[in-house]
Amino acid sequence: MLAEQELRDSLTRSGSVNEQHLESAAETERRRILGQAQDAQKAYEQAFARARMEGRLLRLFVGVGTLVLLMLLTSAVGYGWSAALKEALTNDRSVSVKSAAGDAFGLLVFMILIAGGLAFVAWCVYWLLSRNVRAGVPAAKGRQLLVSVGLAYCSLAVVCAISVGAYPTEVAWQLRHDRPLEEVGGYGWGAWIALGALVLFVLPVLWLRRLARSDQSGQSLPLAHRIAVFDPRERNQAEQQAMAEWREAVRQGLRSFMREKISERTERVFSTELSIDDAPGLKQLRAGHEHVETPADKQLAMISAGMENGSIALSGPRGAGKTQLLRVFCKVDEADTAGQLSLVESVPVLFDRREFMLHLFYKVCDRVIKEGLGTAQEAERHKRSIRYLQTHSDEAALSAGWRSWNLSARKATSLAQQPQTYPEILDSLKRFLSRTALELDEKNRRVVIGIDELDRIEPAATARTFLNELKAVFDVPKCLFVLSVSDEALREAELAPVGRRDAFDSAIDEIIRVEPLDQRTAEKLLGRRVVGLPVPFTALFYCLSGGMPRDLLRTARAAISYVEPEQRITLADLARKLVNRELDRIANTAGGSEESAELAQLFRADLVAEHGGLGALGGVIHQQAGETGDRARVGATLANRAYHLDTVLRIFTRDLTEDRFTRASDPGVSGSFAALARAQREIGTADTLARSTLQRVRTAWSLPTLPPMPSA
Q: Which of 246, 498, 503, 698 could in theory staple to 44 by disulfide, Cβ–Cβ 3.0 to 4.6 A?
């Protein structure tokens, strides 16, 4: 990892940390770093255990096949020579090797045909009696194979053991006494040889049972199911792929750890020039190992620890990090075998209650099978019922005839399984979750189900219906539901009105507010992605994004792309490029009514310059929008956007000194970066408040005064 270009450049820029320090720190934090890749490690361990078991099965099959072949050859050769000697001694002539070989081959073919016939009959009878076999259920097909092969194996074991014990002793007796074998003859120790041969046939069966009991693959599937899906060709490939995924997960965790350690040992760099032209850490928008803990994380951990079941909602504006918090919370507990069994599912845009419940049911079954819980076999049955609509047909026929007369009777029955109704699906899911949660409770664990992106449901009012449907499973003991929903969706769906209880209040037990990042947390988040980023640039990204983690990373990624290799870019130039990028986005992607699109066109670069810059653009927008109606409200939002971008350009210049930066970094002072970021978040939701905040910031920085908001 230390050979990567990014880390070498980071060490060079830092100067206060070396490779030996990183190696020592990584060794000290070895458990935490590997813990971040515990999901991938667990998947690799399961793949390795499956590969090891399949390897043992393959060796067992080869060993059993070799044993059966040797026993068959021994029996056939013994029989052939015994018969040839008897014939030669009776007729007083030399032994015919050809006759011995023919008798041996005949017995060999006879025993193989008998065993194969028994296996075929057992296979057909099992197919007729088992509906699951006809439906293609892997476990049933595996049992069919075990029964058929087992019957053939047992018949061969008995015949071969008797033959191995009898025919070689007959050969020895005839050679010793030089006369044909009488009706009562041979040696008594042949019975012990037969018993020993029978023991050899029993040992593979015992080994197979022991192999099934010692399975460490993490899946409590029956051995018959494993044999039915046994494919040696995929064994090594699956193991190698799981190993590669685990190594990559460890590398990502270690890379994040190194960035964090270098940033901790590097003082906050104050510079108005940026020379970093490559930041691989910014390529991933969501990375659990680079998650920065916020007050919402601590609150979620505290509240969830005090609840055995129920529901928790993560609310906040879009882009505040609700999805990241939800996934990190579930992922951490998923890796902790003493914690929770977790999964996260996103709500589809077009919500259908039956389809979503079936999908959730299927994913829960998948998770249970992956964990290898005691309810895994029940989960397999539920998965089949969800995936397939089964049809069972049974037919019986009787026929009798004599010469030209014929009498026949036939009876046929066909049963088609009807799709489950929604109440049946809900009841089955609750019962299955209850049994699974009860099993986990004995291990001090519980089930956690995350429902993400509730705000994607269209139309927005359908979110109320979704919660009413979903809350039917919120009362499962030892099962916790965590949902994420944006403030915008709450307002549109009227899920949080003042003064009365509604669907949201009655369905949710606890609400955790996910707030945007503060400036120091934003610096910490960027520090885990980019090492050595000067703090004025971090503040610039923070003010433009409003402290929203998603927008913060997007802004930082765009800023790095503007830096030319081996060159520097000043703070003022980068601020201008980022503002122009925002102007282009507003002018070209503004949706809504025609009036909104018309006003957004004023953000085109040529029109901004024609009207005297962003500071004067706000007044022009108000004049074009008027003072009443929806057009006026859109105009107020766009005018505030122009004033906010103008304020950013006027603050982040080459005249920004370290003293002024330090003062503005204090959120308690007037004109702080925190206030400027808050104004960005207020635009579009509380424009009057946003105008007031911008005015206080500009006053603190001695910038031109903004015109007041037009009266409605």
A: 246
